[in-house]
């Protein structure tokens, strides 16, 4: 970003003096879904924002959540947060940040709503895929280069969601309770680094409460810590509909209110009600001026008023290469028994690729982080492109296994949705509340095959309090047996010819509801599908079976038959954005749709089956002892399939490392094995500091795969650990050597252990890492500078960071479990 700091304050003060009271208030809340009101009289344009954090979201209508219908709002789809973090590569974080900032500028955005910094406390959190890690040091080190790179493109980054937004379960109402030391050591360091080291220009509040007060207007978190203690000078933005009170928003740090669900933008808490309170003297003019100063400062520093502001670029070959570079280094090789990987294509004549995730595209999913991308290469496409005609590649979906699998209804078979609409498909009615009564808002849809409930709401509807009805009439194309059915994670009902034929009474994730009937050719059937929004419901899928549908056996039978006929088998499974999704947590750690059973059968048929998985959170693996090769692919962006194929066949040597722990079972996660620590109403963080690897190492609980784990096709060794005390820091050095046959990258990791301390500490804590690239036989010396802060704990009594004199141990290796080198040193106060 250009150096505008010397002239910023003069601009801010001059503009502030020229603004009327009404104009100042207009700058405190949005005037569209993603824009703050302009002040045309003074040349202040709309302050435009867009969702991130791994691509610029498609254009949204100004007054509703409906897509704006643009055909030029495609953006580069980068690997998601957990995938980026799995690279453990600061340079790649900067590269991805530069792409995000440049594309936001090209789309005319002033703020990109990312990166997401929340700690991965529970593997069930539906939004984990957007975040980085369970470890605050790793988050801190990755977020700073990302923010700096975004803002160098004349776009403001937005660190979110501040703070303790670690679950989607009742995310707008849950109240987080934790001690101050846990807050400071685990949940705030990433945000502190974003402010103090990254210079982030905006911060977004979290939906949840913290110690009884909503985080989007929080006296302690925002006024005391963020703005006073850390000296944050930028704008504090609410999450969309995160403001709940004019009084608290006025006094407790909210600078810009966004997305409140009311009939008019004038009804926002910081709009008419705030203006009336200012006029009556209820609210302070000084507080108002502080809000406006911050917004104007961000606009100025982001170049909004600069005639030479960077224009940005979008969907360039350079951006696509950046997505591929990140995707390659994100892939984590979890297991490789007997060096099964990489596969040798010269020894394979017929390759079976099995699994629904081999052919699914994920860019548009996840709710607010969905990206409309020019292309997305799936693993199946990546494999076929790499192998060309040299290997016969056959594919079977494999799961979910259902002989009566539902297909979308072909639109031409449907009557026009409503007379005069010009749309052949479905009439849609949105209604307030959870009962199908009263007035609503009508719309149209070409199909009802899949509905992401969060992205289809008209303006003014509360995201947790509405219902939808879809209606159409179908002409049977031929005589025979039909079935209509749906799958939802909420409450739904299907009516055929006005008769209720099946329904769900409560959350029922992936339980098929189906109605069979006989129809004659030309017969018209009236179909109604109704959905009442339950607290965590996010989707409805609807479809049918018909006489013309091919039934050659179950999808599992087809997959198993292909596996028997192939020389090699690659399974591609895992999660989708019906699992990893904003607004809902997963129910458990199991793979959905019967994948575990299918995997067990594949391993019986071919013990060398290679297992690959897409997903943003950990899963259980009950078959892990039988599996020889396991790859974790993440949601790896538009080039994810290319990267997966390259790793599978040895073009790329995997170098990704897990940024969070894979537990063996949910009971091994402290957020779930302590009563009351994961709740819809109040979540008590009783586990304190022992989150992720801190818990597993401290309490000797064996994980499925540990934090920092990731294998390579070569071998690295560590030697000659040395520690040199200095006046301001302690320098730890180690020699790393590539002892294997191919070039590769490894992540050298440094963990510290405090031997004697007056307060309990986790046994080890990450305090340094470096990614190195080495040719076969090559060695390099890696150095880490350990600061006083790295040795410290947060002392609640003095409200400060404290390091006690005494012995520490430095552990060095390439995962939290593989730490072959250790050496003690003594810290003495200077």
From TrEMBL:
Molecular function terms from GO: beta-glucosidase activity
Q: Which Pfam families match?
A: Fn3-like, Glyco_hydro_3, Glyco_hydro_3_C, PA14
For this protein, the record's PROSITE patterns field holds: PA14 (PS51820)
Which SUPFAM superfamilies does the record cross-reference, listed alphabetically?
A: (Trans)glycosidases, Beta-D-glucan exohydrolase, C-terminal domain
**Residue stretches making up the PA14 domain:** 421-559
Query: Quick check: keyword Hydrolase in the entry?
Result: yes
Q: Which GO terms describe its biological process?
A: carbohydrate metabolic process
**Keywords, comma-separated and alphabetical:** Hydrolase
Family the UniProt entry places it in: Belongs to the glycosyl hydrolase 3 family.
Please give the name of this protein. Answer: Beta-glucosidase
Species for this entry:
Terrimicrobium sacchariphilum
